[in-house]
Structure to design on (330 residues):
């Protein structure tokens, strides 16, 4: 029997290469070995973007296009929209009755996000309860496995504690899901900082090859290489970090040696990177163009995926209501 997986992304805009190597590539592989449910978690987006709901609505479609272009297959996985499965909200509400507030306040990302997003008023229950809603997202499908990066491990541990506390009160309903660490490679943006939409330094999956070429050719490199004949250190170069992810071993060796000896220039290094990067981006761009021509069809896939998700989620909620003695009959 295949293990069941749940994972999701907030619809905050078009995805970039960091999302591809950090999550999507892994999701596509898991489709053949696990029973997968992937959610566009729009309620989570509202915890910080509640003042700009139009953007959230628009981004649901954008993220779906990127997912399908990257290889998610609705014939293999359930792809759904969180807000179209109201059982997520019901389970979140029921969990909120039994989970102490300090459990939520101690989640590391709670204070970190408040500090990073000082321009937003995040003193809301929705933002505090974000990890509890995330637990409901996972447990409503009784997922065994949750692929996450290291920064989300504390959220999965809370999810396990929620399942344990519920089971102790009402009987064994939920499994305790395991985090499957996704080792995301270091992926710098065009300015050398971590690739992020908030920095405006990303290479989007939707970009055409010419745009990708322009961005790569203007990327920052090792600051020690002021002139063409200055030797550099590939370990300090953002371009070489991308080589590590996308180029084969021979190209990496060529780039590293050429950098250290000043045998190649930075433009030579960038052009060699593009030889590996463009074949990754170009098919995504082509598939995205095709998907954009049938938005109604794409939405129908999401609605059908959400319908399938509701069936599974309702089975769990029926058990929960019985366990909590709130299932009433005439």
């Amino acid at each position: 029997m295949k293990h069941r997986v749940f994972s999701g992304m907030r619809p905050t805009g078009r995805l970039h290469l960091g999302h591809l190597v950090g999550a999507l590539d892994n999701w596509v592989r898991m489709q053949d070995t696990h029973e997968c449910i992937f959610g566009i978690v729009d309620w989570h987006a509202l915890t910080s973007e509640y003042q700009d709901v139009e953007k959230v609505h628009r981004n649901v479609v954008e993220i779906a296009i990127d997912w399908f272009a990257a290889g998610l297959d609705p014939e293999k996985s359930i792809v759904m929209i969180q807000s179209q499965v109201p059982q997520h909200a019901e389970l979140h509400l029921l969990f909120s009755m039994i989970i102490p507030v300090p459990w939520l306040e101690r989640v590391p990302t709670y204070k970190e996000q408040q500090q990073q997003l000082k321009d937003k008023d995040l003193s809301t229950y929705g933002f505090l309860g974000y990890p509890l809603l995330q637990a409901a997202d996972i447990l409503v499908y009784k997922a065994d496995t949750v692929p996450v990066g290291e920064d989300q491990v504390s959220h999965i541990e809370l999810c396990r504690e929620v399942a344990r506390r519920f089971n102790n009160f009402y009987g064994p309903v939920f499994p305790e899901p395991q985090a499957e660490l996704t080792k995301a490679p270091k992926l710098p943006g065009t300015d050398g900082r971590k690739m992020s939409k908030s920095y405006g330094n990303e290479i989007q999956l939707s970009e055409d090859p010419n745009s990708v070429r322009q961005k790569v050719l203007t990327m920052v490199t090792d600051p020690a290489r002021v002139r063409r004949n200055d030797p550099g250190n590939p370990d300090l170069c953002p371009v070489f970090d991308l080589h590590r992810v996308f180029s084969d071993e021979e190209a990496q060796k060529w780039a590293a040696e050429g950098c250290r000896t000043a045998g190649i220039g930075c433009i030579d290094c960038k052009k060699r990177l593009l030889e590996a990067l463009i074949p990754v981006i170009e098919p995504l761009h082509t598939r995205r163009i095709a998907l954009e021509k049938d938005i109604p069809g794409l939405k129908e896939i999401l609605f059908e995926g959400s319908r399938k998700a509701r069936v599974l989620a309702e089975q769990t909620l029926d058990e929960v209501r019985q366990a909590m003695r709130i299932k009433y009959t005439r």
Observations:
- The mean pLDDT is 94.
